[in-house]
Amino acid sequence: MLSRAAESIYWMNRYIERAENYARFMDVNLSLIIDLPKNLTEQWQPLVRITGDDALFESLYDAYSRETVVEFLTFNRNNPNSIMSCLIQARENARTVREIISSEMWHQINELFLSVKDTTMIEHGNLSDLYRDIKNGAHLFNGIMDSTLMHNESYHFANLGRLIERADKTARIIDMKYFYLLPRVEDVGTAIDFLQWSALLKSTSAYEVYRKKYGRMDFRNILELLIFDREFPRAIHFSLLEADRSLHAISGSPVGAFGNAAEKEMGKTIARLSFNDIHDVVKYGLHEYLDDFQVRLNCLGEGIFHSFFNQRQ
Amino acid sequence: MKDLLKSYQSDGFFDEVFLPSGEVRPAYRSFINDLLGTRTDELKAKQQAAEKTYLARGITFNVYSEGEGVERTMPFDLLPRIISADEWSVIDRGLVQRVRALDAFLDDVYGKKRIIKDKIVPRDIIESSSGYLKACDGVHPPKNRWVNISGIDLIRHSDGRYYVLEDNCRVPSGVSYVLENREIMKRVFPRVFDRTHVRPVNDYPLRLLEMLEFLADVDKPNVVVLTPGIYNSAYFEHSFLAQQMGVELVEGKDLVIDNGFCCMRTTRGLKRVDVIYRRVDDECLDPLVFRPDSLLGVPGLFDVYRKGRVVLANAPGTGVADDKVICSFVPDIIKYYLDEEPVLPNVPTYLCARPKDRAYIIENIAQMVVKESCQSGGYGMLMGPASTKEEREAFIGKINKDPRNYIAQPVMALSRVPTLVGEGLKGRHVDLRPFVLFGKDPQVLTGGLTRVALRQGSLVVNSSQGGGSKDTWVLSSTDGSVDHA
Question: Lower CB density within 10 Å: C or N end of chain A?
Answer without folding.
Answer: C
